[in-house]
Amino acid sequence: MLSVDLAARKAGVRPGTPVAKAQALYPDLIIMDADQEGDRTGLEKLALWFQQRIAPLVAVDAPDGLVLDTTGADHLHGGEPAMLAEMVRRLREAGITAKAVVADTLGAAHALARYGRARTLVVPAGKTAAAIADLPIEALRLPDSMIEGLRALGVATIAPLAAMPRAPLALRFGPDVARRLDQAYGRISEAILPVRPVDPVTVSRNFAEPIGAAETIARYIGKLVPPLCQGLEERGQGARRLDLVLHRVDSRTEAIRIATATPVRDVKRLTRLLCEKIETIDPGFGIERMVLTATLAKPIAPRQKISSLIAEEEPDVSDLIDTLANRVGHHSLYRFAPVESDVPERSFCRVPALAPDDQKDWPHHWPRPTRLLPRPEPIETMAVLPDHPPVFFVWRGIRRRVKCADGPERVFGEWWQGDAELTTVRDYFRLEDTSGERFWVYRSGDGEHGETGSQGWFLHGIFG
Amino acid sequence: MSTPLSRPPLETLRDQIRRLEGSATRRRAVLPFGIRDIDRRLPGGGLALGALHEMAGGGNDALNSAAAGQFAAGIAARTKGKVLWVVSRQDLFAPALKQVGLGGSRVIYVEAGADQDVLACFEEGLRHGGLGAVVAEVARLSMTASRRLQLAAETSGALGIAVRRWRRQTEAADFGQPTASVTRWRISVLPSETLPVPGVGRARWLLELIRARAGESADFEVEACDGKGRLSLPAAVADGPDQEKAGRRRTRA
User: Fold this and answer.
1) Is A299 left (phi over 0), alpha (psi -120 to 50) or beta?
2) Whose CA is closest to A141, among A170, A101, A180?
3) Environment class of B202 (CB within 10 Å of its CB; exposed 0-12, middle 13-18, buried 19+)
4) CA distance B231 to chain A (A)
5) Among A242, A360, B31, B78, which one is most buried in terms of CB atoms within 10 A?
6) Quick one: fold of A202-299?
7) Mean pLDDT, residues A312-336
8) Considering only CB atoms, which chain A residues are within 8 Å of B228?
9) Which chain A residues touch B97 with a CB distance below 8 Å?
10) Positions of the region Disordered (chain B) (predicted)?
C-alpha cells in the first residue's frame, strides 16, 4: 500500500501495509495500481499552476510534494499565513488534501509539512531548530536502511541525532546524515530545480501604419514565419498548431489557426498554410500588430532517409494532408481500415489519413459492390423460399428481371453487440438483371424462422 | 520511310502544335492497359500520366458510378504510391476497391461537400506530385476548371481521373460539353457471359473512348478489373470466333 484514503485509514489500513493483510482486514477494499508516471506528470502540472499564481520558482518534490521559493512573493498574497491558507483552500477545492509549511530551509519545511501536526504553519525566522526538534528522524529524507540503523541505536527524533558526535555517525552511515541535518538547520544551502515554464515560441510585429491588403498580410506572414521556425529549431521542435493573431486598430482581434498532422518547421510549408487562410480575415480599418505563436509544438528528431540503394522512398504526403485538412477539416480526410466484422456496414472504420499502416486488409473471398448504399433500401421481390434468389425485383420504381444470381451468403447478427442481434440473419445475393446491371440484395431473415428477421428484401449495394 | 521529308503533313502539323504547347521536350509517360487493342488506340500506347482523364458511367451508372468508379480504381491500383480520392458524398465500399487491387492503406479519402471544394482539393492533389493518382467525383466540370486541372497534372506528372457523377439523369447530358481532359471514357455494364452453371460470371463492360486528344475514338468490350486492376478481353474477342467454337465444344464435352 502506497497511499490510502480516509475511509481506509479508519478501517485500519496504513501506507506500507501489505495488500494481502489489508484485504484480510477489509475484504471489499478497492485497490488500484499506483500510476507513478501519471502522478509525476500531475505534480508537474500542479507545479506550473503554482508557478503562474504564487511564486516564480517552483520545483517538484516527488513523489508527493512541491517546493516553492516564496521569497519576495508572499506580500502579493497578503502575508505568509494568508498565502498558505489560500493555497490549501484552493487545493481542497480541487479535491487535494494538502499541508503547507513555510520555513527557513527546504529540509525543515519538508519535514514539518509531512510530520508536523498543523495543516498550515509558518516557522518564524531563526526558530527552525526548535520547530523540528521533536520530529521523527524519518522526516530527514534519509534512506530506509539508515533510519532502521539509527533506530537500532535508540535515536528516534531529530534533536538527539543533531546532538550526537558527527565523526562516528559519518563513519557508520556515510556523509548523508550530516548533510541532511545541515540542510534542515540551514548550515549548508540546498538548490531546487525549478520547473521550466512551457512558454510557446512567439514572434510579433508592430506596424507604424496599419495594413489591410491581402498581399501585405501575406508578405508579413512571410516575414514572421522564418524567425518562428528558427525559434522552434533552437528547441528542436516543430509546430503542430500555429495561431496568428491580428490586432486591428479598432482594438478587435482576428485570428487564423492552422494545424498540421506532423510537427513541421518548414518555412515554405507553414507560410503557405497561413496564407491560404488570409481570405478569412476581416482587416477592418487596418491591422497594427501581428502575433504568430506556435501554441502546440512537438519535438522532431532528425530522420535518416532511406538510401536509394535499398528501396525507393515513399513520397511524403503530409504537407498535402495539412493543406487539405485546413481546407475541409480533419474529419473529412481519412482512410478506411478493416474491422473484423461480417456485417458489411461494420466491416470498415475511418482512421486518420496518416495513421500507421497495420498491414491488415479485407478478406478477398466474396465479391463486394463498389457502392454501398448509406442505408439498405427496401425492394419488392418475388422469390422462392427459403433460399432462392428473387426472380424479379422493383427498386426505385423500376422493375428488373433477374437473369442470373449468386448466393446466398449468410451473415449472422453479432450477438455481442446486443440482444436484438442474437438471432438475426441476413442472406446476401448477387443479382444480375437482363441489362447486365448487378446488385447486392439481402433478405432480412433466413426465409424459414420468423425470429431471424422480417423476411423483407433490401438492396444494399451496386456492383461495377 | 519516316524521313522528315516524306512525313505526312498531318504529323508535321501535330509536331508544331506539340512544340507550341511546350510539352515536346519531355516524353510523356503512359500507363498501358496491357491490352493491345486498347493501347494501340491511345496516343503513346496507354493512358497518359500527368494528364486529366474523364470517366462516366453509361445509362443508370451515370448516377451510381459503380462501373466507372471501379474502372478508375483499377487504373489507380496500377499506379505507384498513394491515391487521393475526392468525393462529395461517401458511398464507396472499401473492400470492393481492395478486390481490384487498391488496398485500404493506399487510398486517402477527402469528403468535400460542395463541387467547388471537390475541384479545389482535386487540383491541390494533382499539384502535389507525390501521389500515384488523384480521383475525384465531380458533377460539373467547366472548361476553365478542367484546364486548371490539366495544367496542374502536367506540372506534377500525376494521373488525374475525374469520375463524372450526376445527381439526376437529365444532368448527364453535361458529358457532351467540351473540357480540357486528354481522354474521355464512358463505361456501361454489359450482361456477363452465361455460365454453364447457375451463378454470375465475370462482369463485362462496354468501354467507349469518346474522345482522345491526338487519337481517335473507339469502343471496346472488356471483362472487368481483376484482383490487380487489369482488364482483359472476353475470350470470344481475344481468340476470335474459331476459338469460341472450340471453347463451346469443350464445355459441351
Assistant:
1) beta
2) A180
3) middle
4) 13
5) A242
6) Dna Ligase; domain 1 (3.30.1490)
7) 85
8) none
9) 370
10) 233-253
Pick the CATH number of B26-191+200-252 from 3.30.720.10, 3.40.50.300, 3.30.110.40, 3.10.450.710: 3.40.50.300
Rounded to an integer, the average pLDDT of A353-373 is 85
Would the CB atoms of B121 and A327 count as touching at under 8 Å? yes
List of chain B residues whose C-beta atoms are within 8 Å of the C-beta of residue A434: 191
Residue with cell 510534494: A65
User: Which residue from B165, B162, B159 is spatially nearest to B66, judged by alpha carbons?
Assistant: B165
Looking at residue B238, its pLDDT comes to: 61
Cβ-contact B119, B134 below 8 angstroms: no
User: What 3-state class would DSSP assign to B219?
Assistant: strand
CA quadruple B131, B133, B137, B140: dihedral, nearest 10: 90
Chain A contact present for B231, CB below 8 A: no
- For residues B208 and B219, the answer to whether their CB atoms sit within 8 Å is yes
- Name the pTM for this structure: 0.67
Q: Is A438 on the interface with B (CB under 8 A)?
A: yes
Neighbouring CB atoms inside 10 A of A418's CB total 9
Instruction: Enumerate helices (H) and strands (E) in chain B, giving the number of each.
Output: 8, 10
Contact state of B95 with A348 under an 8 Å Cβ cutoff? yes
**How many residues does this entry show for chain A?**
464
- B63–A contact, CB cutoff 8 A: no
Establish, for the pair of chains A and B, how many residue pairs have beta carbons separated by less than 8 Å.
Answer: 161
Residue A328 has its nearest CB partner, among B112, B200, B224, at: B112
Judged by CB atoms closer than 8 Å, whether chains meet at B73 and A370 is answered as yes
Instruction: Flag if B99 and A321 touch (Cβ within 8 Å).
Output: no
Residue A83 pLDDT: 86
Q: Tell whether B204 is within 8 A of chain A (Cβ).
A: yes
Interchain CB distance below 8 Å, B124 and A323:
yes
Q: What is the mean pLDDT of residues B10-39?
A: 79
User: Cell digits for A140?
Assistant: 530527514
In chain A, residues 362-391 whose CB comes closer than 8 Å to chain B: 362, 364, 367-374
Contact B91 A437 (CB under 8 A): no
Domain boundaries, chain A: 1-34, 36-185, 202-299, 371-462
Chain-chain contact of B95 with A347 (C-beta, under 8 angstroms) = yes
What span, in angstroms and rounded, lies between the C-alpha atoms of A380 and B119?
A: 39
pLDDT band at B252 (very low <50, low <70, confident <90, very high): low
Q: Does residue B2 have a pLDDT over 50? A: no
Distance CA B209, CA B55 (A): 9
Question: Residue A323: closest CA among chain B residues belongs to which residue?
Answer: B124
Of A317, A336, A432, the CB nearest to B192: A432
Burial of B139 (0-12, 13-18, 19+ CB in 10 A): middle
Give the mean model confidence (pLDDT) for residues A81-107. 87
Which DSSP string do the residues of A356-420 spell out, in sequence order?
PP-------SS---SEEEEEEEEEEEEE-TTTPPEEEEEETTEEEEEEEEEEEEEEE--GGG-GG
> Taking CB atoms and an 8 Å limit, are B190 and A374 in contact across chains?
no
* Residue B78 distance to chain A (closest CA, Å): 16
Q: How far apart are CA A443 and CA A389, in angstroms?
A: 9
CB B77 within 8 A of CB B101: yes
**By the 8 A CB rule, do A22 and A2 touch?**
no
Q: Specify the 3-state DSSP secondary structure of B159.
A: strand
Predicted local distance difference test score (pLDDT) of residue B249? 53
B173 falls in which pLDDT band (50, 70, 90)?
Answer: confident
Chain-chain contact of B200 with A405 (C-beta, under 8 angstroms): yes
Q: What is the Cα–Cα distance from B23 to B45, expressed in whole angstroms?
A: 17
First to last CA, chain B: 52
